[in-house]
Amino acid sequence: MAEQAARLEFVHSSQFTTPVAEEYAQELLEFAGKNFRGGSVYFTCGGSESVETALKLATQYQVEIGETRRYRVLSREQSYHGSTLGALAVSGNKRRREIYLPMVREFAHLGFPYCYRCSYDCTDGCQNCGQQYAEELERAIKASNGEAAAFILEPVSGATLGAAVPPGGYLKNVAEICRRHGVLLIADEVMTGMGRTGRTDSPTMRTRSRWRPGGRCYGSSKRESWCKQRIRSKPEARARTCGGHWKNCAPFPP
User: Fold this and answer.
1) Residue 83 burial (CB count, 10 A)
2) What is the full DSSP assignment across 27-95?
3) Are 82 and 91 contacting, i.e. CB atoms less than 8 angstroms apart?
4) b vs e for 217-241, b when ≥16 Cβ sit within 10 Å of the residue's Cβ?
5) Closest residue by Cα to residue 179 from 198, 194, 201
6) What is the extent of the structural domain holding 207?
7) Are 44 and 221 in contact, with CB atoms under 8 Å apart?
8) Residue 33 and residue 164: Cα distance in Å, rounded?
9) Cα separations in angstroms, 150 against 178, 190, 199, 241
10) Which of 235, 221, 194 is nearest to 45 (CA)?
11) What CATH number did the domain enclosing 126 receive?
12) CB within 8 A of 28, min separation 6: which ones?
């Protein structure tokens, strides 16, 4: 970090880039899977900002392809995506959200596959309930009347639900439903850790965040190459003063 600071004190990432950030972004894309090759990385300052960026990117993508009615971001109950207002709006923890509800937009929150308190029949090892929970997403997309822009979920639920692993086939079905309806799939891997549960190429965007002693923290939102090609304008809507800081990019492995 000292070496990086000695080379350059500060530039705003909305106008400039640095070799260390470019190199680290390429490492992340290669690690993220084949569907992200040729994509791009947007560095932030932490997990909540990564989610906020992904929500904005999803809406911007829909607008730039002519789907101007799509703005709703569907999510799941008993989920956590961050503490900023946009991330809080798609989070499903009622206690954390209740006093801020007048300030956030309310979109549909769907059921989540959790066999301990399942709404369906779990006698077959959760294969059936996983399919039924995926079908809830399809119904919610149809109920949005063409206004659904994205669906965000934690591949493995974090602190709010307690590391609940989805049943086999659930994520695959969710990804297929999103593709079929033109809805972007955002995998919030800030708590899960990208790649720690097996690599998957299904999401359109992935969010992550890491921290190291000394207060060095960064976050990122990655998007597939086909999504990148559609998003060319208005970077100022996502700009962060210290986002993508090169001193934070240098010390981290992918």
Assistant:
1) 14
2) HHHHHH-GGGTT-EEEEESSHHHHHHHHHHHHHHHHHHTT-TT--EEEEETT----SSHHHHHH---HH
3) yes
4) bbbbbbbbeebbeebeeeeeebebe
5) 201
6) 16-245
7) yes
8) 24
9) 8, 18, 21, 26
10) 221
11) 3.40.640.10
12) 41, 220, 222, 254
Do the beta carbons of residue 104 and residue 143 sit within 8 Å? no
250 in a domain, yes or no? no
User: Would you say residue 227 lies in a domain?
Assistant: yes
* Secondary structure class of 98 (helix, strand, coil): helix
pLDDT in tens, 120-178: 877 766 668 888 999 999 999 999 999 999 999 998 887 788 888 888 889 999 999 99
pLDDT tens per residue, range 22-37: 888 888 778 777 777 7
Q: Are strands 216-223 and 184-188 parallel, antiparallel or unpaired?
A: unpaired
β-strand pairing of 72-76 with 109-110: parallel
- Residue 92 domain flag: yes
Contact between 253 and 4 under an 8 Å Cβ cutoff? The reply is no
Residue 6 falls inside a structural domain = no
**Three-class SS state of 147:** coil
Residues 63-88 have pLDDT tens digits of 888 899 999 999 999 899 988 899 99
Q: What are phi and psi of 226, to 5 degrees?
A: -65, -30
**Predicted model pTM:** 0.84
Instruction: Note whether 81 and 51 are within 8 A (CB).
Output: yes
